[in-house]
């Protein structure tokens, strides 16, 4: 009889230790309180040999063990949800790696902007000389159109074809032209006065058609360069109606940042999901604790049976 009693007490200690571990894992106050109350019930039987030890075994069988099974099921479900999040995080990382391998960085874009501006300034200066001398010499810097070919996909604003057509429209009487270029007369004169100094403002694209927009240094004047026709015209930037100011950030890099932010959010969610207990189950646990705390265990073991049956119903549900 003594051996049977000791065996039940040892088993009780093991069960309570498992409940303690789960209370630490979930970090939930109500689970910890149930653990403490279970300890009190255990000690009641351990310190009072005259009590029917079978009721302690029944308590654990009906209530504590079912609670352990339920918490383990919640823990497993949470871990499965976390695995899905980890899979999404890894997919995002793979996509980020793939995109980064195929884009030019914002630093490259900014550096090549400066090179392109030098090419434009040099070409305009040369074009002025060619037109003045009525020369047949080619005026443009080497690979002047490579900049748009390289960066338009990621860094240029998407606009309508109609806007492009409007921007590049000109009257023949208003331009100088030769076999290589077309430039607005007043623009040629103004660029000459400003000593051929300009800054890249932004790029526009409509499908594969691109336009480069430049700002004359220390001026509120803008002009465009249209590569297919080697065309230079004044540009009214109010027509552009861009949603934002020009940016050095690639669209793909913007997407990468969005993916990185998403991964940060997912990582933050993991720590929350790991110990999440569904609200209905948490409510039941609070009711269980009140029952265990308020009743005399020996006199109301049937009440514990009722609570245990509710836990079992939760354990068997497919809603978790």
| Helical segment count | 10
Biggest beta sheet summary: 7 strands, mixed
Shape: rod-shaped
Question: How many beta strands in the DSSP annotation?
Answer: 7
Radius of gyration, taken over Cα atoms and rounded to an integer in Å: 38 Å
Give the termini separation: 42 Å
Into how many domains do the coordinates divide? Answer: 2
* Secondary-structure element series: HHHHHEHEEHEEEEHHH
Structural class: alpha/beta
**Strand line-up across the major sheet:** 1-4-5-6-7-3-2
* Mean pLDDT value: 87
Amount of helix:
55-70%
User: Which consecutive residue ranges, at least 5 long each, have pLDDT under 50?
Assistant: none
How would you name the oligomeric state of the polypeptide chains in this document? single chain
Strand content: 5-15%
Per-chain topology:
Elements: H1 2-26, H2 29-47, H3 53-100, H4 106-133, H5 146-155, E1 157-158, H6 161-167, E2 175-177, E3 182-184, H7 185-193, E4 198-206, E5 209-216, E6 222-226, E7 231-234, H8 251-274, H9 279-294, H10 301-316
Parallel strand pairs: 1-4, 3-7
Antiparallel strand pairs: 2-3, 4-5, 5-6, 6-7
How would you sum up this structure, described in words?
With 320 residues, the protein is α/β, with parallel strands linked by helices. The chain has two domains: 118 residues, no CATH class; 144 residues, no CATH class. It has ten helices and seven strands. It has a seven-stranded mixed beta sheet, sandwiched between helices. The protein is rod-shaped, with a radius of gyration of 38 Å. The protein starts with a helix and ends with a helix. The mean pLDDT is 87.
